[in-house]
Design goal:
Organism: Jiella avicenniae
Pfam families: Methyltransf_12
Low-confidence stretches: 211-217
Radius of gyration: 19 Å
Strand order of the largest sheet: 3-2-1-4-5-9-8
CATH class of the largest domain: Alpha Beta
Order of helices and strands: HHHHHHEHEHEHEHEEEHEE
Shape: globular
Number of helices: 11
GO biological process, one term: methylation
Keywords: Methyltransferase, Transferase
GO molecular function, one term: methyltransferase activity
Number of domains: 2
Oligomer: single chain
Protein backbone atom coordinates (compact mmCIF):
# COMPACT_ATOMS: atom_id res chain seq x y z
CA UNK A 1 0.00 0.00 0.00
CA UNK A 2 1.32 3.44 -0.93
CA UNK A 3 1.69 5.76 2.06
CA UNK A 4 -0.64 8.76 2.22
CA UNK A 5 -1.68 11.42 4.72
CA UNK A 6 -4.65 9.79 6.48
CA UNK A 7 -5.62 12.96 8.35
CA UNK A 8 -5.64 14.99 5.14
CA UNK A 9 -7.69 12.31 3.38
CA UNK A 10 -10.20 12.18 6.22
CA UNK A 11 -10.61 15.96 6.18
CA UNK A 12 -11.00 16.12 2.40
CA UNK A 13 -13.49 13.26 2.39
CA UNK A 14 -15.62 14.73 5.16
CA UNK A 15 -15.71 18.07 3.37
CA UNK A 16 -16.71 16.44 0.08
CA UNK A 17 -19.36 14.29 1.75
CA UNK A 18 -20.87 17.30 3.50
CA UNK A 19 -21.05 19.15 0.19
CA UNK A 20 -22.73 16.17 -1.47
CA UNK A 21 -25.30 15.88 1.31
CA UNK A 22 -26.01 19.61 0.96
CA UNK A 23 -26.70 19.17 -2.75
CA UNK A 24 -23.58 21.00 -3.91
CA UNK A 25 -22.46 18.49 -6.50
CA UNK A 26 -19.63 20.50 -8.06
CA UNK A 27 -18.12 21.27 -4.66
CA UNK A 28 -18.43 17.61 -3.72
CA UNK A 29 -16.71 16.58 -6.94
CA UNK A 30 -13.86 18.98 -6.24
CA UNK A 31 -13.50 17.41 -2.81
CA UNK A 32 -13.51 13.85 -4.13
CA UNK A 33 -10.87 14.76 -6.70
CA UNK A 34 -8.80 16.15 -3.84
CA UNK A 35 -9.17 12.77 -2.10
CA UNK A 36 -7.74 11.07 -5.17
CA UNK A 37 -4.79 13.43 -5.24
CA UNK A 38 -4.01 12.51 -1.63
CA UNK A 39 -4.74 8.80 -2.07
CA UNK A 40 -4.57 7.56 -5.68
CA UNK A 41 -5.41 4.00 -4.54
CA UNK A 42 -8.79 5.39 -3.42
CA UNK A 43 -9.54 3.88 -0.03
CA UNK A 44 -12.69 6.03 0.36
CA UNK A 45 -14.32 5.20 -2.98
CA UNK A 46 -14.02 8.69 -4.44
CA UNK A 47 -14.14 7.43 -8.03
CA UNK A 48 -17.44 5.69 -7.38
CA UNK A 49 -18.87 8.82 -5.80
CA UNK A 50 -17.79 10.95 -8.75
CA UNK A 51 -19.43 8.48 -11.14
CA UNK A 52 -22.61 8.40 -9.05
CA UNK A 53 -22.76 12.21 -9.26
CA UNK A 54 -22.39 12.00 -13.03
CA UNK A 55 -19.18 14.03 -12.78
CA UNK A 56 -16.62 11.32 -13.44
CA UNK A 57 -16.18 8.19 -15.50
CA UNK A 58 -17.18 4.91 -13.93
CA UNK A 59 -14.10 2.94 -12.87
CA UNK A 60 -13.60 -0.64 -14.01
CA UNK A 61 -14.40 -1.82 -10.49
CA UNK A 62 -14.90 -0.50 -6.99
CA UNK A 63 -11.18 -1.02 -6.40
CA UNK A 64 -9.35 -3.31 -4.01
CA UNK A 65 -8.37 -0.56 -1.57
CA UNK A 66 -11.95 0.68 -1.16
CA UNK A 67 -13.52 -2.78 -0.87
CA UNK A 68 -10.92 -3.96 1.64
CA UNK A 69 -11.31 -0.84 3.77
CA UNK A 70 -15.11 -0.95 3.63
CA UNK A 71 -15.46 -4.56 4.71
CA UNK A 72 -12.62 -4.59 7.22
CA UNK A 73 -14.46 -1.74 8.97
CA UNK A 74 -17.85 -3.46 8.77
CA UNK A 75 -16.81 -7.04 9.57
CA UNK A 76 -17.90 -7.23 13.21
CA UNK A 77 -21.34 -5.72 12.55
CA UNK A 78 -21.72 -7.03 8.99
CA UNK A 79 -24.28 -9.78 9.55
CA UNK A 80 -26.34 -7.71 11.96
CA UNK A 81 -26.55 -4.78 9.54
CA UNK A 82 -26.90 -6.66 6.26
CA UNK A 83 -29.05 -9.62 7.28
CA UNK A 84 -31.08 -8.50 10.28
CA UNK A 85 -31.47 -4.81 9.49
CA UNK A 86 -31.46 -4.74 5.68
CA UNK A 87 -33.01 -8.15 5.00
CA UNK A 88 -30.20 -9.47 2.79
CA UNK A 89 -30.96 -13.07 1.85
CA UNK A 90 -29.07 -13.82 -1.38
CA UNK A 91 -27.19 -16.86 0.00
CA UNK A 92 -30.45 -18.58 0.91
CA UNK A 93 -31.98 -17.65 -2.44
CA UNK A 94 -28.97 -19.18 -4.20
CA UNK A 95 -29.33 -22.42 -2.25
CA UNK A 96 -33.06 -22.55 -3.04
CA UNK A 97 -32.48 -21.90 -6.74
CA UNK A 98 -30.03 -24.79 -6.95
CA UNK A 99 -32.53 -27.08 -5.23
CA UNK A 100 -35.33 -26.08 -7.60
CA UNK A 101 -33.10 -27.03 -10.51
CA UNK A 102 -32.36 -30.40 -8.94
CA UNK A 103 -28.77 -29.69 -7.87
CA UNK A 104 -28.37 -30.85 -4.28
CA UNK A 105 -24.78 -32.05 -4.00
CA UNK A 106 -21.41 -30.82 -5.25
CA UNK A 107 -17.93 -32.23 -5.03
CA UNK A 108 -15.98 -28.98 -4.94
CA UNK A 109 -17.19 -25.41 -4.50
CA UNK A 110 -15.64 -21.95 -4.49
CA UNK A 111 -17.26 -18.94 -2.84
CA UNK A 112 -15.93 -15.71 -4.34
CA UNK A 113 -16.19 -12.77 -1.94
CA UNK A 114 -17.12 -15.15 0.85
CA UNK A 115 -17.30 -12.41 3.48
CA UNK A 116 -18.31 -13.76 6.87
CA UNK A 117 -19.41 -17.08 5.38
CA UNK A 118 -23.12 -16.65 4.69
CA UNK A 119 -22.99 -18.67 1.45
CA UNK A 120 -21.00 -21.43 3.09
CA UNK A 121 -23.58 -21.65 5.86
CA UNK A 122 -26.48 -21.73 3.37
CA UNK A 123 -24.86 -24.66 1.52
CA UNK A 124 -23.43 -26.43 4.56
CA UNK A 125 -23.50 -30.19 4.02
CA UNK A 126 -24.12 -29.94 0.28
CA UNK A 127 -20.51 -29.42 -0.86
CA UNK A 128 -17.81 -31.98 -0.07
CA UNK A 129 -14.97 -29.46 -0.25
CA UNK A 130 -15.76 -25.75 0.09
CA UNK A 131 -13.24 -22.97 -0.53
CA UNK A 132 -13.74 -19.28 0.11
CA UNK A 133 -11.80 -16.15 -0.82
CA UNK A 134 -12.28 -12.53 0.22
CA UNK A 135 -10.27 -9.32 0.18
CA UNK A 136 -11.09 -8.52 3.80
CA UNK A 137 -8.94 -10.32 6.35
CA UNK A 138 -11.39 -9.40 9.10
CA UNK A 139 -14.26 -11.00 7.20
CA UNK A 140 -12.26 -14.15 6.50
CA UNK A 141 -11.46 -14.53 10.19
CA UNK A 142 -15.19 -14.57 10.98
CA UNK A 143 -15.84 -17.06 8.17
CA UNK A 144 -13.11 -19.29 9.60
CA UNK A 145 -14.82 -19.28 12.99
CA UNK A 146 -18.08 -20.32 11.31
CA UNK A 147 -16.59 -23.62 10.20
CA UNK A 148 -18.43 -23.95 6.86
CA UNK A 149 -15.27 -23.84 4.71
CA UNK A 150 -12.50 -26.36 4.26
CA UNK A 151 -10.04 -23.73 3.02
CA UNK A 152 -10.09 -19.93 3.16
CA UNK A 153 -7.92 -17.41 1.34
CA UNK A 154 -7.39 -13.66 1.46
CA UNK A 155 -7.31 -12.13 -1.99
CA UNK A 156 -9.12 -10.46 -4.86
CA UNK A 157 -11.50 -12.69 -6.81
CA UNK A 158 -10.12 -12.20 -10.32
CA UNK A 159 -6.52 -12.57 -9.19
CA UNK A 160 -7.39 -15.69 -7.22
CA UNK A 161 -9.08 -17.28 -10.22
CA UNK A 162 -6.07 -16.44 -12.37
CA UNK A 163 -3.28 -17.39 -9.97
CA UNK A 164 -4.61 -20.15 -7.69
CA UNK A 165 -2.10 -22.98 -8.02
CA UNK A 166 -4.47 -25.94 -7.73
CA UNK A 167 -5.60 -27.23 -11.11
CA UNK A 168 -8.53 -29.38 -9.99
CA UNK A 169 -11.70 -27.73 -11.32
CA UNK A 170 -14.79 -26.75 -9.36
CA UNK A 171 -18.27 -27.99 -10.13
CA UNK A 172 -19.78 -24.97 -8.35
CA UNK A 173 -18.60 -21.35 -8.11
CA UNK A 174 -20.69 -18.70 -6.38
CA UNK A 175 -20.49 -14.91 -6.19
CA UNK A 176 -23.16 -13.47 -3.91
CA UNK A 177 -23.02 -9.67 -3.71
CA UNK A 178 -19.74 -9.50 -5.64
CA UNK A 179 -20.80 -8.33 -9.09
CA UNK A 180 -22.11 -4.98 -7.76
CA UNK A 181 -18.46 -4.10 -7.11
CA UNK A 182 -17.48 -4.77 -10.75
CA UNK A 183 -18.37 -2.87 -13.90
CA UNK A 184 -17.52 -4.97 -16.95
CA UNK A 185 -18.25 -8.58 -16.00
CA UNK A 186 -16.45 -10.18 -18.95
CA UNK A 187 -13.04 -10.66 -17.25
CA UNK A 188 -14.63 -12.35 -14.25
CA UNK A 189 -16.85 -14.61 -16.35
CA UNK A 190 -13.92 -15.74 -18.48
CA UNK A 191 -11.90 -16.67 -15.40
CA UNK A 192 -14.84 -18.42 -13.75
CA UNK A 193 -15.40 -20.48 -16.90
CA UNK A 194 -11.74 -21.41 -16.89
CA UNK A 195 -11.97 -22.80 -13.35
CA UNK A 196 -15.22 -24.73 -13.76
CA UNK A 197 -15.45 -28.37 -14.68
CA UNK A 198 -17.42 -29.15 -17.86
CA UNK A 199 -21.08 -28.42 -17.06
CA UNK A 200 -20.03 -26.82 -13.76
CA UNK A 201 -22.35 -24.15 -12.36
CA UNK A 202 -21.85 -20.45 -11.68
CA UNK A 203 -24.37 -18.81 -9.34
CA UNK A 204 -24.29 -15.07 -8.75
CA UNK A 205 -26.37 -12.03 -7.89
CA UNK A 206 -26.46 -8.62 -9.52
CA UNK A 207 -28.17 -5.35 -8.76
CA UNK A 208 -30.17 -3.80 -11.54
CA UNK A 209 -31.46 -0.40 -12.47
CA UNK A 210 -33.93 1.35 -10.22
CA UNK A 211 -34.08 4.92 -9.11
CA UNK A 212 -30.41 4.88 -8.12
CA UNK A 213 -28.74 4.45 -11.50
CA UNK A 214 -26.81 7.53 -12.51
CA UNK A 215 -27.51 7.21 -16.23
CA UNK A 216 -30.78 5.32 -16.43
CA UNK A 217 -30.29 2.08 -18.30
CA UNK A 218 -26.51 2.23 -18.17
CA UNK A 219 -26.05 3.66 -21.65
CA UNK A 220 -24.25 1.58 -24.23
CA UNK A 221 -22.20 -0.24 -21.60
CA UNK A 222 -25.21 -1.86 -19.92
CA UNK A 223 -24.01 -0.96 -16.44
CA UNK A 224 -23.62 2.16 -14.32
CA UNK A 225 -22.76 3.31 -10.81
CA UNK A 226 -25.88 4.02 -8.79
CA UNK A 227 -26.43 6.49 -5.99
CA UNK A 228 -25.60 3.67 -3.59
CA UNK A 229 -22.09 3.65 -5.13
CA UNK A 230 -22.49 0.11 -6.41
CA UNK A 231 -22.60 -1.08 -10.00
CA UNK A 232 -26.05 -1.75 -11.45
CA UNK A 233 -26.17 -4.15 -14.41
CA UNK A 234 -28.97 -4.44 -16.94
CA UNK A 235 -30.50 -7.86 -17.54
CA UNK A 236 -29.74 -7.80 -21.27
CA UNK A 237 -26.11 -6.96 -20.55
CA UNK A 238 -25.69 -9.79 -18.04
CA UNK A 239 -27.34 -12.34 -20.31
CA UNK A 240 -25.17 -11.29 -23.24
CA UNK A 241 -22.00 -11.41 -21.12
CA UNK A 242 -22.83 -14.92 -19.93
CA UNK A 243 -23.53 -16.14 -23.44
CA UNK A 244 -20.30 -14.55 -24.72
CA UNK A 245 -18.40 -16.51 -22.06
CA UNK A 246 -20.13 -19.68 -23.33
CA UNK A 247 -22.43 -20.19 -20.36
CA UNK A 248 -25.91 -21.64 -20.68
CA UNK A 249 -28.39 -19.80 -18.48
CA UNK A 250 -30.48 -22.24 -16.43
CA UNK A 251 -32.26 -19.64 -14.29
CA UNK A 252 -32.41 -15.85 -14.25
CA UNK A 253 -34.72 -14.55 -11.55
CA UNK A 254 -35.67 -11.09 -10.28
CA UNK A 255 -34.92 -10.71 -6.57
CA UNK A 256 -34.85 -8.10 -3.85
CA UNK A 257 -31.20 -7.97 -2.87
CA UNK A 258 -31.80 -6.05 0.36
CA UNK A 259 -33.54 -2.92 1.59
CA UNK A 260 -31.88 0.37 0.64
CA UNK A 261 -33.06 3.54 2.37
CA UNK A 262 -36.35 1.84 3.18
CA UNK A 263 -36.98 0.61 -0.36
CA UNK A 264 -36.31 -2.78 -1.98
CA UNK A 265 -33.07 -2.86 -3.96
CA UNK A 266 -33.88 -4.75 -7.18
CA UNK A 267 -31.54 -7.31 -8.66
CA UNK A 268 -31.22 -10.69 -10.31
CA UNK A 269 -30.00 -14.10 -9.30
CA UNK A 270 -28.76 -16.38 -12.05
CA UNK A 271 -27.61 -19.97 -12.32
CA UNK A 272 -25.49 -20.64 -15.39
CA UNK A 273 -23.81 -23.80 -16.64
CA UNK A 274 -20.44 -23.88 -18.33
CA UNK A 275 -20.94 -24.95 -21.92
CA UNK A 276 -24.12 -26.15 -23.58
Amino acid sequence: MTAFDEAALDAAYRKALAAEKAGRAEAAATGYRACLEIDPEDHVGARLRLAALGLGEAPASAGDAYVTTLFDQQADAFEDILVRQLGYGVPGLAAEALSRLGFEHFDRGLDLGCGTGLVGAALDGRVDEMLGVDLSENMVEIAFDGGAYDHLYIGEALEFLEEFEEVEPFDLILAADVLPYLGDLSPLLARVAGRLAPEGLFVASTETFGEGASNGAGGESGFAVGRDHRFHHGEDYVRAALEAAEFTILAFEPITVRMQEGRPAPGHLFVARRGG
